[in-house]
Amino acid sequence: APTQAPEWLARLNEPQREAVLTTEGPVLMLAGAGTGKTAALTHRLAHLIRERLAWPSEILCVTFTNKAAREMRHRVGDLIGDAVEGMPWLGTFHSICAKMLRRHAELVGLQSNYTIIDTDDQLRLLKTMIREANLDEKRWPPRQLAGLIDSWKNRGLLPGDLTAVDNEAYANGKGQQMYAAYQERLKALNACDFGDLLLHMLTILKTDREVLQQYQRRFKYVMVDEYQDTNAVQYLWLRLLAQERKNICVVGDDDQSIYSWRGAEVANILRFEKDFPGAKVVRLEQNYRSTPQILAAASGLIAGNSQRLGKTLWTELPAGQKLRVLGVWDAPEEARRVGEEIERLEREGAPLEQVAILVRAQYQTREFEDRFIQIGLNYRIIGGFRFYERAEIRDALAYLRVIAQPADDLAFERIYNQPKRGLGAKALENMYRHARAQGLPLAAAALELADSDELPARARNTIAALMGDFLRWREASDSLSPAELMRLVLEESGYDAMLKADRSAESAGRADNLVELARAMEDYETLGDFLEHVSLVMDNDAASDEEKVTIMTMHAAKGLEFDNVFLPGWEEGVFPSQRSLDEGGLASLEEERRLAYVAITRARRRCTILHAANRRIYGQWTSSIPSRFIEELPEEHVEAETTLSGGKSLWQANWSEQEDPFAHVASTRPERSGTRGPGWQRALATGYETKPARVKENTRSAASFAAKPRSDIAIGARVFHEKFGYGEVVAQEGNKLEISFEKSGIKKVIDSFVTAAD
Ligand code: ATP
Ligand code: MG
Predict the structure, then answer these.
(1) Is-catalytic flag, 539?
(2) Closest CA to 370 of 397, 336, 340
(3) Is 38 a catalytic residue?
(4) Which atom of ligand 1 is nearest to the CA of 39?
(5) Pairing relation of β-strands 603-617 and 549-553?
(6) What does the entry list as the binding residues for ATP (predicted)?
(7) What is the pTM of this model?
């Protein structure tokens, strides 16, 4: 009985202990944020092992992230005073299923050494299949199909299970056919995608009695954290495994269901008592994490949702400060304020590890990263790349680097075929070979190859067009601001079109990141200045043991806690997100509100919400409206402060005292002097001709690149060429040769591709 609890459980409160000690039969722990659900689950795991109710290998315990699994493993070890050997079935749904599937792969037509393909591979495969099916891939993009297939898998549907509606969702009724063909193709490759890990295991448990019984017998206890975010396939898989013994304990909070966009169904937690009749329901109401103010503010906010069970939360923690809502002028000021606040906390002795900035969208991290680097504040980005390391940002920067510094081979290599231009590995190999032989930059080598027969005509034309673009952009860089130049390049290179063709949520995020990049560039006069700034930012990577501030999305912060939490960008269209507003449904707005609840309840001591009065998008200022969630916070627990005057709406605030936000747009750019970034100087110093006008004239002339002609080959020499065979040199211009080949007639080739035959 709970009253005779061992001492090591004394720290837990009564209902927590009850959840720990009720080991037999179904248990549902349904409770609000910070009430010790995860703590109770961890103790329960330790208890089972300690009391030898089961071996570690006989317990199935599902966490939401790998990190949470590691932490739990650690804590259990601490609790029972011993490192726990082997808890093979403690992990995320995916990691557990991957392990199981290795053992039974043959039951779904795979070998045990199957590969798990990533999104890139998946898209490439689907693209081929879409072409083979003679579908218009612009109209029916691979990403759309990938998204549909994922959602079907999340729902536990095999191709044969699709409804007519599902089937109609792609290419006028070809959904099922494409899905089936894709599954067949994966099988032939001995591969599966992420969604298959669960779906295959579900299929196996459903169709193979013996395997099912083996696992039902093995797992004496099943436990799941964050149960409110399980999707259908996970739910079905769990139900099968737990059906026999019914020793299943799930914990969750319906108010924290924030992954419906990934197929999570909050209904799973609500129907647990139906699935497992007689389930013991444990409610935890005491919050151990947050001050009364934070708790009351979060509770007041979430009360605005209609679709919830509703629950009471209380805390014995001493009163703290009210939630702070800070109104600032614009995003840079937002980052500056947060930076100042953190520095102040640091001076007061607060550990940086206990400070987090939680954003709604990935792109929001950029302003903070820039600022923190400037003031030398260590930070880490969790669950995503640092802003300037994201693929689309690196792509855009690579274009700009080639413009600023044509000898930047790494940059050129990154984008010569991005977006896809049909230039393959062979073209790159040829460019490299020539570049090395001649000591030329890759771009210059490409330009020369474009004027020779070394490459097939199609590749030559493509390269010539690309190099022509670069020359034009280089010229344009004289008259355009860096941000304007970037807009031009992204449009003319086809990069924008590539993102647009791809209708996934992910690609929308990428487009947002590029808008954010343009915003960052507005602050720089020349391209060189901006690129220098970026290289400094990128250099700040030094991994160290020093304490760091954490920057991450609200989604990724689920289950975590920090003393000090900053929540920037609480404006309509940022949070709640524009997408949720466009969708317009109550459900999507309520999910945003749950996200706000998750975000606020991460805070232990202080929570600061920020909103800016103005945001700049492509050089255009727009006024923003504070998030409706701010208004919904109970007034008595909030302390509002603006850096603008009066109690008026921020946008109406005293214009005369503020810098005119349109000034940037309206004013003509100051004449820029001829000075450029270091790239140009280096290029000029190495004698590489870069003056736009001249280069343009010389597009077709290799001589302008100062390549040295070979001294060992002259007119009349007999030479050998890999592709064209033997021939005689009939003309020589710089390092370009015209050769009369014995088999293929007169060709223009480049001297680094021939050897003297005599
Ligand atoms: P979330 O819903 O955010 O996942 P949770 O319900 O899982 O929250 P925990 O993370 O387990 O809550 O606990 C919140 C904090 O309260 C932790 O710091 C934990 O150590 C502490 N805590 C949990 N139970 C107790 C207790 N009985 N006494 C004191 N502190 C506790
Ligand atoms: Mg938790």
Answers:
(1) no
(2) 336
(3) yes
(4) 11
(5) unpaired
(6) 31-38
(7) 0.74
